[in-house]
Amino acid sequence: MTSLTGYRGAVMTPRAGTRELDYHDDTVLTVAPGGTIVGLYKPGDAPPELRLIHDLRGSLIVPGFVDTHLHYPQTRVTGSASGPLLEWLERTVFPEEARFSNATYAADVAREFTMACARHGTTTVGAYSSSSATATTTLFRCLEDSGLRAVVGLVLMDQNCPDALRVPADRALSEADELAATWHGRDAGRLSFAVTPRFAITCSKTMLAGAAALSERRSLLVMTHVAENPKEENETLEVHPWATDYLDVYERVGLVHERTILAHAIHFDGAQWDRVGARRAKIAHCPDSNFFLGSGMMRLAEPRSRGVVVGLGTDVAAGRSFDIRRTLSHAYDASLMTAGGATAEELFELATLGGARVLGKDDVVGSLEAGKEADFVVLQRPAHAEGKEGALRIATFGSEAGPVTRTYVRGKLVWSRAAD
């Protein structure tokens, strides 16, 4: 007879097919040995196979957070204030990313990166690497050991960047293909590879078209940036004068489709949003980064009204923290300031199930439902945070009052505050 493991406490999870949350005050999250959720049960109704129950009463159990957009090689420059987007890249980011040709440095930062994610309750990431295939392999190996779930992309850049980061299109695409062959689908799908042209300015048309072809041939996700900064958009059209607007650069080469994740999308007009919706592309909403670089505020109501799937991204290092709840707070602020304010329930869904949808993993994670894999987080819960309203307050905006105490992936403990 198979022995099951239970985790007893208050549980809050998105409800499948809605933007609402289910809340259970005293429930046993029951997990099979392979890390699959069997179900949520009242303590007296648990299956007889349940042999071990971890008593987490006084805590709140929620799905693991999903960070759809962040940069591994920027871990050590988080919070560096050196100007708006293009100046910040030139002064801070590109010099730091050039250091990832050093294998020891890349490995040290990879460990810091994975630990920071786990410590903040992030169980799934959409992570940009550098343009170094060796550093990208290093990150994959570290993620493999950490137990975290990840989509990782080798950053493609063959123009308008420092020589230390520039990789010719043929070589970069060949390296991306090799990385995909090695890592995509690793460990029963826990690790995946994404085709990742950094942004249009740093990619030739040849690179962009080759990236689209690779994505199509291997059915890979595409991760890139778009419409983050007005100056960036102007320079994009100077570099690619054959396009009518920023989005059109990607559309014409075949990079915008149902597996595409567009980060930022601050400066889209209604017609561009219609095009995103028609092509079923996804959005990584990065409000903390948008504020920090003075880029603007994405109007969350625009994609939501068109049925475009949206998730949250910390966008470390322009995002100032690995804490997705900080990003969630900024998403709330931005929604109020751009009309059509979002509710806390809606935003919590973006940080969990919505993010899983963006990364194409919503059939596996993002909510605590029977048949899904047991990626979940345990949050400290003050006694005064009672009922669903108190739980929601802690899970969304309460990083200080309700810190992460444990992080699990596939039912395996990958981080504990007690052991940190």
Can you describe what's shown?
This protein has 420 residues and is of the alpha/beta class. It is globular, with a radius of gyration of 21 Å. It folds into two domains: 4-63 and 367-419, Roll (Urease, subunit C, domain 1), CATH 2.30.40.10; 65-358, Metal-dependent hydrolases (TIM Barrel), CATH 3.20.20. An eight-stranded parallel β-sheet has the order 5-6-7-8-9-10-11-12. It is built from 14 helices and 15 strands.
Report a brief summary of the structure.
37% of the residues lie in helices and 25% in strands. With 420 residues, the chain is of the alpha/beta class. The relative contact order is 0.16.
Summarize this structure as a short list of keywords or feature phrases:
14 helices, 15 strands, 2 domains, 420 residues, Urease, subunit C, domain 1, 7-stranded mixed sheet, 25% strand
